[in-house]
């Protein structure tokens, strides 16, 4: 009963956080719900361990909790998602680290996989919804395909080559369809980020913490390396600059710096003093609803991991 209660608390906290993420104007999510769920999850798992006179449930909870938290916060530091998403990973790791039947490896793995599966479906549906809704996005998408026709053509040619070598005509057609959709979706998301995921806002309506496009702005600070950039810098120093002089330098340029910039109060006041009238405020994909959905699917036994374990 203690484990069931912990899962219920995790789902409830994430569900409420998801509502804030989706329906608040800027996706502001109070952290109190997630913090309460983490504390409750730890206490309930300690209670469960006490009830069966074993430290094993605590070790499992701590191990899975730390792994989920580490991934969530590293992804946050890399600029892959927001703090609410990282905190949601912490909730799942400490409040639902294993199934209600007790410690085990499959539940945590299934939950981790389901987060990415649900995220992918969520992102596709979101992009398709925006594509149907926005004429500007549709025009931008088709314009992007025309401008990059050689690249797109090369990608589709590679898709054809991969599809031809499948074991049957059914698999060939299925591979061609799926891979072609993925290629088009990749180009759609690039246009979506530029066209739909940023809004020009009067500086009077901009708030501290908003994510802005820093291009062309004088914020008085230099780009800071993220975790990937720091690792690259260390390796490059060890190899006497070999990496930065090679083609691998593109890794640092494209992945070594986070382009996500949260505006500070001093920076906002400085921009006002400079006479800046408007800023391009970026909107991220609101992912928090993915986490309670993934938990429900995992607890219900719906996961592709199950099919792999059958063979």
Q: Can you walk me through this structure?
A:
- With 311 residues, the chain is mostly helical.
- It folds into 3 domains: 2-118 and 286-308; 135-195, no CATH class; 198-282, no CATH class.
- It is 66% helix and 3% strand.
- The chain has 13 helices and 2 strands, in the order ααααααααβαααβαα.
- The chain has helices at residues 2-23, 32-51, 56-77, 83-95, 105-133, 135-147, 149-164, 169-195, 227-238, 249-255, 265-273, 290-299, 304-308; strands at residues 198-202, 278-282.
- A two-stranded antiparallel ribbon has the order 1-2.
- Helix 2 packs antiparallel against helix 3 (56-77) and helix 6 (135-147) packs across helix 8.
- The longest helix has 29 residues, at 105-133.
- The two termini are 32 Å apart.
Question: Gist?
Answer:
The chain is mainly alpha-helical and 311 residues long.
- Give the strand content: under 5%
Low-pLDDT stretches are none
| Mean of residue pLDDT values | 81
Count structural domains.
Answer: 3
Keywords, separated by commas or semicolons:
two-stranded antiparallel ribbon, mainly alpha, 311 residues, 13 helices
Task: Present the secondary structure layout.
Layout: H1 2-23, H2 32-51, H3 56-77, H4 83-95, H5 105-133, H6 135-147, H7 149-164, H8 169-195, E1 198-202, H9 227-238, H10 249-255, H11 265-273, E2 278-282, H12 290-299, H13 304-308
Antiparallel strand pairs: 1-2
Helix pairs in contact: 1-2, 1-4, 1-12, 2-3, 2-4, 3-4, 5-8, 5-12, 6-8, 7-8, 9-10
